[in-house]
Design goal:
This protein is mainly beta. Helix content is about 5%, strand content about 35%.
Amino acid sequence: VDGKVLVIVEETAFIPNLFTPNDDGKNDELKAYGLGTVSNFSFSIYNREGSLMYATENTSDLAGNGWNGTVRGIKQPSGMYYWKVKGENNTGRNILLNGKATGSIMLIR
């Protein structure tokens, strides 16, 4: 039996949709995983009103430190926050998190 199988590999990194910055040592920072080599990278998080909460142009910063749920040292309230990612991987394709360029995160204290 002859047959063909087409395998499509979607290169996508992962970001959780929930984090709990309550200083218990578990899920205290929002981090992205599997970004690899990215050029022209930017990642930002906004609150419901559209105010910028966090931004970085460094994949190592997002993967290593992440966002701790504060802005200028002030703990932000529980609720829904929104992220946006831009950049290209080493093959020139747009970088995605969870298969998307935008998404939401629930912050729970």
